[in-house]
# Entry
Amino acid sequence: MARQRHNAKHQKPSVKHERVERREHKLELKARKHAESEASHVQRAEELDTQHSEYVPSLSVLFRFLALVRVSGALLSPIQDCDEVYNYWEPLHFLQFGAGKQTWEYSPQYSLRSYAYLHIYDVLIRSMHLVIGFRTKTQVFYALRVCLALMSALCEAVFVRSVAQHVDRRMANYVWLGVFGMAGMFHAAHAVLPTSFAMCLCMLGSAAAMVPPVSDVKRHMRNRAVPAIGAFALAVCAGWPYAGLVAVPFVLEEMLVKGSGASTRNWRAQRLAMLVVVGVGATVIALGAMAVVDSWYYGRPVVAAWNQVAYNVLGQHNGSSTLYGTEPWYFYLKNGLLNANIVMILAFCALPMWILYYVALKQTSRTTASVAGERAMRQLLDGHFLLLFRLLPFYLVLVVFSLQAHKEERFLSIVYPHLSFCASAALSMASPLRAWTCAQLGRRSRGGQSRAGFLVLAGAACVGMLRMTALVKYYGAPVRAFMELPTSNITGLLPLGPSIKGLRTEQPLHKDLDRVVCMGGAWYWFPSSYWLPRGYHLQFVRELGGVDGHLPGDFVPAKASGSVQKSTSVERPDFNARNEWEPSHAIELSQCDYAVDIEYPMREEPGLAHSSEWQQVGMCHDVLDPANTSVLARMVYVPHVLAWMAGQRQEWGQMCVYERRNPIA
# Structure
């Protein structure tokens, strides 16, 4: 009996020890279960959201859907920037018809602009003329715009499909809805601007860069590196040199991320060699082709892309981009809110949310014990790390351009699609972050929030539509006003080369008709010479006010010099790179046959409405007076009645065409 009591006494500590071990084991299991629950919350939130938006339209459907709004913009949207008119539409008009306005950038002693870039559009127009047979210059204008709109829609569709295939299907649906209702894309997609050209190529380059890197060099080059490098190189050399910023995150990813597949020795050295060889090769081919064409037009060796950088960045010719205006650092923030509204706000949230999501994933991965959970978290972390390189182009361009003194609205257009991508990333990360937060607080998450994301972007699209309508209604007067000019009686096909529409003899563009249309303070409203009837040309006058700085001159007419090349290669003393007034680029009002002017009742400015020497031709057309209109009423379309009821002031001016009562003999 004593021995039994002795054994029981010595067994009690072991029993207590076993109870403690069992309790610790239960706590450990509970902790593991909690950790795996957190991981499953994050993963399940992503899976549920993806399931709700599994369907992504095909490339064909996306193209047709986006083409609706792009072609509508091409047909309705007014030209937003006078630089597009005088630096691109006018030289293109000269290449096609032998007459047009010339800016100092096209003078051979400066040669900042590329004729090779314009030749892309010239060849496109002449090819269409072969089939269509253009009879009016406005047909040429709209045909080119529609072609550019369709090209942009195709590039956007390719970009969206790449997001769906290589990033996330839900994000892809967010991206196309974001660009569909973005007012910035409405007027940038069809613009004859290097920034718009570069935007399309950057979309193609970024679409290729969405493909995850792999260690297999041949497969990596074929599926990802070569298409991306080629598109980015063409965007820089043939489009806009500063578009190279969009490619910087791609280069960083190439050097930092090995990718999946079997381990390969010296993969960084191979990637670097590939980047150098393919990048230099693509640049030499593109830049060489551009230089050959430009050198022929300018009559001397020229690399226009380098000249542009040398002037704007290095101060060549004692010039600087700041001569043409400076803006505060927050200019692109305001402009982004105007052109992208809610999408811009969401895009700003993407990077902070990426950081929070990364912290959540790292914290969850440390407490995940099961093999399946660790594998899932590793996949989430790898995919999340790659997402960073897809977000960076927008932020990099925004920061670098905001640090420059000279800013223009069109500069940011190269990353409009990336802006929508960042917004879609923010919406996609919102649901997993919410699920993780609920798990930390011990609350139950209700799953995906994709429906809310679609509602947010639908609201942004509605606001964007109001902005698009405002652009058309408030600032569409110039096109309608120039249609009031009397048309000439010159008929037949335009002199753009052969056409299968008929073998009729083409009529000379100007013939013996020579009419001068003058503009003063409204010179920047000129919609291009494509809206002037045959035999009419534009001149500037100071009597109507608001004319200063270095206004464009005239190309030497091709019929006077003997050829287009002789006109483009002649150096003239009437151009300068310092934005100084040149008297020879303006004439006296008495030399004008017609005049186009805007009169604002709320401003005291000289006008022709009450002049006895001039009479109105046709109808006048309303144009918004932004200086005397409330902020909201000029940002988005507000009908007159609603504006009055809401206390939003709207003031209007009249753009009219005037004809001299006693025509010049």
